[in-house]
Amino acid sequence: MTEVFQKLKKIVTEKYISDSIYVRHAYSRNVNPVLQGVPDIVIRPKDAQEISEILKIANEENIPIVPRGGGCCEWGGSIVENDTGIILDMKRMNNVINLDQDNLVVTVGAGIAWGALNNYLSQFGLYTGCLGPGSGLTASVGGGISHHSVGAGGCAKYGACTNQLVSLEVVLPTGDIIETGSQANKFSKVPFNRFGNGPDLAGLFCGDNGIYGVKTQVSLKVFPRPPIAAYKTFVLPRKDTEAASQIMMEIRRKGIDVFDTIFIPQLVVVLGAQEGMFPLWKQLKRKRGILFYSIEANSEIELNERVKQLDEIFLSKKTEELGPEISDGNFAKWQYENPWHLYHNLWGIQPACEPFTAECFTPLNTLPELVADTMAWENECKEDMQKIGELTGNRIVMSSAGPVALIDGNNVEYTVGFNTSHSYHEGTTHEIIDELNLKLWKSLLIRTYKQGVQYYMCGSVPSKLMVEIGAYSQEYNNLLKSIKKTLDPNFILSRGKFNLTGEME
Amino acid sequence: MPELENLKKVWDNVFSCMGCGECGFAVNPNAEIYLTCPVKEALGDAAFEIHFSRGRMSVLKSILKGAIPLSKELAEFVYQCTECGNCTETCHQCDENVVLKISEWIDHNNVWNALRKDLVQAGHAPLEKHATLIELMNNPEMKNPYGEEKSKKYAWADGFSNIKEKGEFAIFGGCTMPLRQAETLKNMMKIFQAAGKDIAMSKDEWCCGSIAMRIGDYKAVEEEVKHNIELYKSMGAKTVFSPCAGCYRTLKKDYPEIIGEELPFEVKHITEVLAEMIKNNEIAFKEAEAETLKVTYHDPCHLGRHMDLYEEPREIISKIPGIELVEMKRNRKNAWCCGAGGGVKSQFPELSLDISKERVREAIETGARVFLTSCPFCVGNLRDAVNQMSSEVQDKIEVVDIIDFIALKI
Asked: How many angstroms separate the CA atoms of A54 and A48, rounded?
C-alpha cells in the first residue's frame, strides 16, 4: 500500500491524501450504529482529471475505491468493505461552476451540499425544486443523484432530485471522462437538456449508488421560488394511515401541485410529545397522526383557490385543522421554514440511541397494508428487541412509519426502521447488539422488499439483499452485471454493492 | 489511573453522535448558520474529516471500542480545535417548538475536554508550546504564561487612587490584558473614576489556569485554583469581575466544578458590570457626533457560547450616543470564532490567524469602521490578523475592546 500511496500522492500532492490511522477512522462510518469500514487511504481530489488518474492506478493495483459525498448513507454506501480500499472524498469539488440564468440551469461540483447550493441560488430568487435528501445540509448533490434522493422538501411538487437532472460529468471506473445529455454533443456550449443525442445515459448513473461511475459535475434545472406559500397542519382521525393515504390520493387526482404533503404517524406524535421532541404538539387533546401540506403560488388568488381545494379534501376526511402558528401545532409552517430537518423522527430519543432507518418508495394505495405489515413484523421481533433493551436499558422503539412524504407520481417515501443502540455501552462492547441489529435490520428489509417496495439508498446492505433474496430476475441481474463488467472490468468502484462481482448466471 | 478515564465518562455523548455531518457542512440561512467549523474552513481543501466534529467523534468511537489507541499523532489533530463550541450549536438546531433530541445528549466541548485530559494523562500531551506555557504559568517567579515577572502584571495600576487592596468589588485582571493590553485596563479605571467607583485589586493574583485547563492538564492548576479562591476570600470580595472572557469563564464555570462547590463570591464579566453602571446612570456619555459611527460586535466564544452572555455588550453599545450597531452575518450563538482559543494561537499560530482573517472580512462586510469585542485574546488575534492583511483592510476597520470604546465616549 505504501507504493500505491506514493503514486497517488503524486496526483493530488501530499496535502490532499492521508493514510493516518486517525484520518482513516474518521472516514470509517456512515449514519448507522453498526457498519464500519476502515479505508487504507483517504484522498481528496480536486477535479475529474485527478479522479481519472486515481482510478487508473486503482485498476493497475486492483484496489477498490468508494466515492464519498456527505457520508450520510444509512447503509454503508460511502465506506469501504472489509477494511480495504480507498475513500474518494468528493467534498473538495463543492463549487458552483455556472448559473445559466437564461436557461435556468446550474452546474456544480458534485461535492456541494444541497443546503449550500440552495443558499447560493436564493440570491437569485431560485431554488432546486426538490431540495434533496433530509440530510441535505451535509449530503452532496452527487450523492443525491446517486440515490434519487428526496426528503428535504419540495418532493411532492418536483419529485426526486434526479427529475431535475440536465447533465452529468462522470469519470468511468476505467478513468475515461464522459458528459451526458446535451453535453454528449461536444459542440454544445452549455448543458440544457438531459434527453436526446441517443439513449439517456445519464439515467444509468441516476440511483446507481456509485457503482457505474464517479459523478464529478452535475447540471440541474433550477426554478424561480414562488413568492408566496401557505402551510396547514391537520390532526387525522383514528385510522390515520388510511386517511392520510386517501387524502394524498385525492390531492393527486385533483392535480393540485402541493410543495409537500407529509404524514407523521400517531406513534411518533405521541412519543415525540411525551419525550419533549415536539413541544408544539404537547397541548394537543387528541394525539393522533398528523398530516400537513405546504403549497406555493405566484399570486394570492392562485394560492387561495388551491388552499380552498386542499382544505376541502382534508376536512372531508374528518381531520381537524390546527392553528396557523407553529406554536399552535402547525408543523407545516415549521417544515417549510426549516427544510432539511424532517428526518428520523425519533433520532436520539435516548442517549446513544440511533435508528436503523430505511426509506423506500411505494405506491400510495399500498401504504396502509405496508404499515400494518411492518407493525406485524415488529411484534414478531419483540424478543430480539427486548434483548437489546435489557443490555442497554434503552427502550427500543419502532418508528414504523415516519415520516411518510408524498413524492412524484402517486408514490410516497415511506420510512421504516427501529431505534436501537450501539454495541458500546458504559465501557463494555456487547458484540451481540451488532448481531441482533443486523439480523433485525435485514429481516425488516426483506419483509418490505417482499411487499414490493423500492429502496433507493441501497448502500452495501440492501443492494446485496435484493440480489440474495432473488428479487431481481436473472435476466435483470445479468444486465446489471454485464453493464458493470463493461464499465468496470476490475470491479474497482464500490466493490461488493449489488453483489456484482460474480459471473453471470 | 485507568485508561480513557475521562472519555469513558462521556461515552454516551460520543455515541449519541449519529454522524449527520452538519457540524462540518451546514449552510442554513433560516437558522443563521453559514458553515460551522472555523478550523475546517481555515484549512480549506486540506481539511480532512478529522478536523471537525463528526470525524473526531468517529475516531473516538473507535478509541472507546479499543480499536485504536491514543497517541501524539492524535494530539496533533485534536489540539487544532479552538473549542469554540459552534459544532454544538449546529448540532442543537432546534427551537421552542421542535427539538432534535440529541441536543440533550451531546456537549462537544465536554467530549474534547475529556479527550484532552486523557491525552495528558497518557503522556501524549501537552504539545511542546503548550507545555512551555504551563511551565511558565507554574513558575513561582511568574505565575503567568507570558513568562513575565510577577510584578509586571500590576504596573498598569500605578497612580489610580481608586484601587484598594481590599474590598467587596474586586478585579481579576488576568494575564493577557495587564501584560499585553494594559492601556485597556487604564481606560477601565478612567470609566470607574468618572463614576466614582472604587475597586479592590491584589498584587498576588495568579493565572486563572485557563490555558492549562483548555489543554486538559488539570493537575497543573490545582494550586492556582486554591490560591486564587483564598486570595479573593481574604480580600473580602463579594463580587469578582474580570475584563477577560477566558478568566471569566474559568472562574465562573470551571472553578466551582473543580472544587465541587459554589465559590464564596459572585463572578461577573466587565460587560455585565458596565451594563449595570449604564443602567444606573453611572456613566455619562459625550453627545453624539454629527455623523453616526457604524460598529460591529464580535461575540467571544468564552463569553457567548460557553457562558451564554450575548446581550450585555449589545446593551452597552446601544446606549452610546451616535453609534449604530451592525451585526455580522454570524452573530451570537453562530458567531465565527476568532481562532485564538483552545490553545490554537500558541501551538498553531498560522491556523489561528487564518481563522481570524475570516472574521475580519466578515466584519468589513457590515460596513462598520470599528470592530468591537470584549476579550483580550480576541482583540489580540483579530488585531494580528488585521495587521497581516492588506493596507486597504487596515484602513477600513479597527479592532477595539469595548472598554476602550466606552472610555473614548465619556
From this structure: 10
